[in-house]
C-alpha cells in the first residue's frame, strides 16, 4: 500500500532483497476500501490464498516447519512521483516488522 499526497494505492509487488519493490505484472490484489484516522491509513484488501502466480506465496496453515514469514514495512522509503497520480516507492528506510505465521485464521483478524 502506498499513500502519496492523499492518493492511496495497493499494488501487488515483490522483492528479492533490500531494493525497490518490483511491480508484479500479474496483479492479484484487490482494494476494497481505505480509512484515514489521524495520521494512520488503514486499507482493506483481498487476495486469493493461491493465485497461481509464481511470484506469490501460497497462503496456508502449516506446521512449525512450514510457517510463513510476513513482512510489514512500518516506515516506507521515499515516494518518487512519475506524474501527479503515478509514483513508485524506494526501499524502506527502517527495518520492517517480521512475523512468523503458522495459523492464518489467527493472523488475518489481527495483522
UniProtKB/TrEMBL annotation:
It holds the Pfam family DOMON. InterPro entries: DOH_DOMON (IPR045266), DOMON_domain (IPR005018). PROSITE patterns: DOMON. Residues 1-76 form the DOMON domain. This is DOMON domain-containing protein.
